[in-house]
Amino acid sequence: MSKLYVGSEVGQLRRVLLNRPERALTHLTPSNCQELLFDDVLAVEEAGKEHDIFSLTLQSQGVEVLLLHDLLAETLAISEAKQWLLANQISDFRYGPTFAAELRHYLHTMDNDHLATVLTGGLAYSELSIQSASILPKMHGALDFVIEPLPNHLFTRDTSCWIYGGVSLNPMMKAARKRETNHLRAIYRWHPTFANQPFSNYLGNHNAHYDNTNIEGGDVLVIGRGTVLVGLSERTTAQGVENLAQGLFNSGQATQVIALKLPKTRSCMHLDTVMTQLDIDTFSIYPEVINTKVETWVLKPTATGGIQATQARSYVDTIQDALDLQSLKIITTGGNSYEAEREQWNDANNVLTVKPGVVIGYERNIYTNEKYDDAGIKVLTIPGNELGRGRGGARCMSCPIERDPI
């Protein structure tokens, strides 16, 4: 079995990809944070400290932590990778041929560590020392971004997701996140950790125009035993689910995909904000969204290589059958209706399982954490007063690279 393998949501987590929040968060302001998909500006140093605690908590559980910045800088040290990434991130179509050539040349002069910081953290026109012949810089103010920051890179779960013996390099829904995926394309193609390992690319490995095919990793739960659970959310389309399913079936990595239709709202932007798996037979849900009324579909391959989608009776029965269980244990968000809504908003359901029955979650969600504890689920708590402002919990902030099956 390749080490690049994620066989479940709850088996022992072995390796995970994180991104420590740094330069990108310093570029968040009250006037631009909404456009960059944040509800507020964060205290950058405090967010970094909270993230360090998250990373140390993972390491205390025997999990190897890889950092996106380090992987990207090491990838940029490979000449072919740097050429490809700059050609795609600083394209003629994005900047115009004159300014793109000048900007690529300028970025080539940076050391790889600083270049990784700029590509993920952004660059203002005032920081450029280019006398350009292009009209583009003349049309912008000093504080406008030449390269927009990518603060949502904090949520490594979404940009790529490892599913059994392969990876989905995800076409992101929102413009503020689309550039993230090319960083992962370069890392998985050229970085030594990945370059010589066998794995499938379910949606391909090209900077293509995916049109209506959008999928984000927060909507993808690898529940095990050949089944993948996916949310049809505000960020993941039916076309995205079917293209992912086709890649999974063609490569023989999955036998079925279960799709749940979610409301198209920010409060449940991804499936994992309202539902996660805590143990083989135990799920956390927010019952205002995940209940007996949630529309459930099962996608399976046909004999001719296509996909057949069939509506199922209920998500509970469908998951029980997929995992060969007699029953499911369902833990709902804690507190009264007001407290439950607040805790769901603060990612009480968005916990990261590190091994069966052991999860990492924000300490602020006291009512839900008490319910987990009462059900025999051990919660390793981390602070999230700043990190939580980005609307993402421990699961959102982690991309498992290697995890045991169930």
What is the radius of gyration computed over CA atoms, rounded to a whole number of angstroms? 21 Å
Largest sheet: 5 strands, mixed
The percentage of residues in β strands lies in 15-25%
Order of adjacent strands in the largest pleated sheet: 9-10-11-14-15
The CATH homologous superfamily of the largest domain is named: L-arginine/glycine Amidinotransferase, Chain A
CATH architectural arrangement of the largest domain: 5-stranded Propeller
Coarse morphology: globular
The percent of residues in helical segments reads 25-40%
Structure at a glance:
Helix content is 31%, strand content 21%. It has 406 residues and is an alpha/beta fold.
Note the topology.
Elements: E1 5-6, E2 13-18, H1 23-26, H2 44-60, E3 64-67, H3 68-76, H4 79-89, H5 92-95, H6 97-108, H7 112-121, E4 123-124, E5 145-147, H8 156-159, E6 160-163, E7 166-169, H9 180-190, H10 192-195, E8 200-201, E9 220-224, E10 227-232, H11 238-250, E11 256-261, E12 275-279, E13 282-285, E14 296-301, E15 307-311, H12 315-323, E16 329-332, H13 337-345, E17 352-355, E18 358-362, H14 366-374, E19 378-382, E20 399-403
Parallel strand pairs: 1-20, 2-3, 7-8, 10-11, 13-16, 18-19
Antiparallel strand pairs: 2-20, 4-5, 6-7, 9-10, 11-14, 12-13, 14-15, 17-18
Helix pairs in contact: 3-7, 4-9
Overview of this protein structure:
A hairpin with a 5-residue loop joins strand 14 (296-301) and strand 15. The chain is built from 14 helices and 20 strands. The chain has two domains: 5-67 and 151-403, 5-stranded Propeller (L-arginine/glycine Amidinotransferase, Chain A), CATH 3.75.10; 71-147, Orthogonal Bundle (Pentein), CATH 1.10.3930. It has helices at residues 23-26, 44-60, 68-76, 79-89, 92-95, 97-108, 112-121, 156-159, 180-190, 192-195, 238-250, 315-323, 337-345, 366-374; strands at 5-6, 13-18, 64-67, 123-124, 145-147, 160-163, 166-169, 200-201, 220-224, 227-232, 256-261, 275-279, 282-285, 296-301, 307-311, 329-332, 352-355, 358-362, 378-382, 399-403. The relative contact order is 0.16.
